[in-house]
Design a protein that fits this description.
By secondary structure, the chain is an alpha+beta fold. It folds into 3 domains: 7-316, ADP-ribosylglycohydrolase fold; 363-481, Jelly Rolls; 512-655, Exo-inulinase, domain 1 (Jelly Rolls). Strands 15, 19, 20, 22, 27, 28, 29 and 31 form an 8-stranded antiparallel sheet that branches. The chain has a 7-stranded antiparallel sheet with strand order 18-21-30-23-24-25-26, with no helix packed on it. A 5-stranded antiparallel sheet has the order 5-8-13-10-11, with no helix packed on it. Helix 16 (251-265) runs antiparallel to helix 17.
């Protein structure tokens, strides 16, 4: 059971399992959907990663665990319905996150459309709604690792949560896969015999369903043919190949390979994953799930560093919340752990920034090294830096369409706690996305140094770094968010990230993430919508005193400045709707807080200013002032359109 005393142990168990997941996804991605024969012809002897990704863009297998658990952050009580709402809150429409292969083809796409139409989970993923083929594809399995991470060693809790979450998109065997993965990871944190882990995990499944029966069949084959895993692979290809099951990526063939690899791998992390990856089919999903089970089983000491160090703690995603798309393995492991304590009804634990081995926070060195030891980052490099935002040259590809918002903004203050045996001057530096570099020399005071980021028109922070002559240790880094933003969209920039995972090219408006609608730079930021449109920027924790929006409503009856945004179903808007100036709250359902009659013209340029005053929210529009009830200006900001809308934003300013 969880307790204050074992919080460090539990965090390391979760970290090892999550790291195993990330490793497996990274290993399997280059050969996803390849056959065993094709993989062996291209990579006959490879025992490590097949591609040197350096900074890996994003993947659906890690997107799911990162964001679905946020249902626990956003709700006091978690149900299938609240997890379904989490889908709508954090996903962009029709891009990123997972495979948008079409309704009736992609299970997740199909379920998303159901949720949009008001079909609540679990009906959204049921056989009754979607048919058996859709319900028994692989997605219910590949996203379920996270429910083990938040279960606090409680296997039944992990299974129940996984079944609940899987039911949003899947049914029957699709749910059984989620239950198996969650149970196996939770069991593996304590039981160190992989064969017993598999046996015990299967006891949580429905024995009348094919998932359980085929798993038993593969285990029986293993018992009678322990000497040759390829003989088992041939058996699976013949009896449970893709040709035996409907749909694009059925759960049963891939589960059979997972059981095979774990059985023949005999508890060896590397041997198991390499074997599984060579077997083909849905390699990144299979290796991700098994990597998580094996990571929980062997712990950090059982994972070769060759798998860990290339990751550099970097974990990117592709959600509708751009700054959350820049994460780290270690900090997300801490989030899972804190959610486990929340579920258990215990006080949220505190962990030092550099609590975990390999938790480099994505810090890179121009030369020398930076490594974690004794709760500090030991720096033996004269120049280190970390990315606050990715330009196209920084990431390997546009896999799963990641769009980023900078995690640092102009005028933010960075505070670093450090120690050094030598007295020395440190040079903070920041590089913006136009490659302009700003430097500032400082000396520690009480073991701390500070750096206030500069600000200017169209400035987006690309990276921040530190230079020093002698080795030193970083004990903590804190950021005080106090943004000063000025964007002139008549002279703004795109990021050309290159080929997308599913074809075409990915071009993003710098630091802005489009949820819905079409957004491009054309004489300003031009947005067009059919049903609705939304684009956003910023970070949680941002505080603003004043927002100023210059825009031209071109078509449609709704044009809003968005603020206080945490997700699509959690935001405020102020602006034009029909013949009114409105303040609107979106909390799952839309509510108009207040409105004023107003005459406005399409094709005319307006400035709307929103100011946080002591006892009210003051809106200035077209030379007149309007008072609304007090609402803080914080978190993400953006621009929204209603049905059949079009507007052009010329400029935007935010003042801390």
């Amino acid at each position: 059971m969880l307790s204050e005393e074992n919080k460090h142990e539990y965090l390391k168990d979760v970290y090892a399992a999550w790291l195993g997941k990330v490793i497996g996804v990274r290993l399997g991605s280059p050969v996803e959907n390849w056959s065993h024969e094709k993989i062996m012809s291209f990579y006959p002897d490879e025992e490590g990663y097949l591609v040197d990704y350096d900074i890996y863009a994003a993947d659906d297998d890690t997107n799911g665990p990162l964001f679905f658990v946020r249902a626990l952050l956003d709700n006091e009580e978690i149900t299938a319905e609240t997890i379904g709402e989490t889908f709508l809150n954090y996903l962009q429409e029709y891009k990123g996150f997972f495979w948008w292969g079409g309704v009736g083809v992609s299970t997740e796409h199909t379920a998303y459309e159901n949720l949009k139409k008001g079909i609540k989970a679990p009906l959204s993923g049921s056989i009754e709604t979607n048919g058996q083929t859709m319900a028994e594809q692989i997605g219910g399995q590949i996203f379920s690792d996270c429910w083990a991470y938040v279960a606090g060693y409680d296997v039944q809790r992990a299974v129940d949560l996984a079944a609940m979450a899987s039911s949003v998109t899947h049914d029957r065997n699709g749910i059984e896969g989620g239950k198996f993965v969650a149970a196996a990871i939770t069991l593996a944190m304590k039981e160190k015999d992989i064969h017993k882990v598999i046996e015990d995990a299967l006891e949580y499944l429905n024995k009348d369903l094919e998932y359980y029966q085929v798993a038993r069949e593969i285990l029986s084959f293993y018992e009678n043919n322990k000497e040759d895993w390829q003989k088992c692979l041939s058996y699976i290809q013949k009896n449970h190949g893709y040709d035996k099951y409907p749909g694009t990526c059925h759960i049963i063939p891939n589960m059979a390979l997972m059981i095979m690899a774990m059985s023949y791998g005999e508890g060896d992390f590397s041997r198991t994953l390499v074997m599984l990856n060579r077997s083909g089919w849905d390699t990144d999903c299979n290796c991700g799930n098994v990597g998580s089970i094996m990571g929980a089983l062997v712990g950090l000491k059982g994972i070769d560093e060759k798998w860990i160090t290339p990751i550099n703690d970097v974990l990117n995603a592709s959600s509708a919340i751009g700054f959350l798309n820049i994460q780290t393995v270690s900090e997300s492991a801490k989030l899972f752990t804190k959610l486990a304590y929340k579920l258990e009804g215990l006080k949220e634990p505190f962990f030092p920034l550099f609590e975990l081995p390999y938790a480099t926070k994505g810090i890179r060195c121009e030369s020398g090294s930076a490594s974690v030891k004794d709760y500090s980052l030991h720096v033996e490099s004269r120049d280190i830096y970390a990315y606050a935002y990715y330009l196209s040259k920084d990431i390997y590809d546009a896999r799963y369409d990641p769009e980023f918002s900078a995690i640092l903004n102009p005028n933010d203050r960075i505070e670093v706690s450090l120690k050094c045996e030598e007295s020395q001057v440190y040079t903070f530096y920041m590089e913006d996305c136009d490659r302009l570099v700003y430097e500032y020399d400082t000396v520690p005071k009480d073991g701390k140094i500070f750096f206030d980021l500069p600000y200017g028109k169209n400035m987006v922070v690309h990276k921040a770094g530190l230079k020093a002559y002698y080795p030193y240790e970083i004990e903590d880094v804190r950021v005080l968010h106090r943004p000063m933003i000025e964007h002139d969209f008549t002279s703004f920039s795109y990021e050309h990230y290159g080929p997308r995972y599913a074809g075409s090219f990915m071009n993003n408006i710098r630091s802005y993430v489009g949820h819905s609608g079409d957004w491009k730079l054309s004489g300003g930021l031009l947005g067009t919508s059919k049903e609705h449109g939304l684009i956003s920027n910023g970070c949680y924790g941002n505080r603003y005193h004043e927002l100023s929006w210059t825009f031209e409503p071109i078509q449609g009856e709704e044009h809003l400045l968005i603020f206080n945004m945490k997700g699509y179903l959690d935001r405020y808007g102020v602006g034009l709707r029909n013949d009114e100036l409105v303040l609107v709250e979106y909390k799952e359902e839309e509510r108009t807080i207040a409105s004023y009659p107003l005459s406005w013209d399409k094709g005319k340029i307006y400035e709307l200013t929103l100011k946080d005053e002591t006892d009210r929210l003051l809106v200035k529009f077209d030379g007149k002032e309007y008072a609304f009830e007090k609402t803080e200006l914080r978190d993400l900001y953006g621009f929204a359109l209603g049905k059949e809308g079009q507007s052009r934003t010329l400029s935007f300013k935010a003042r801390y």
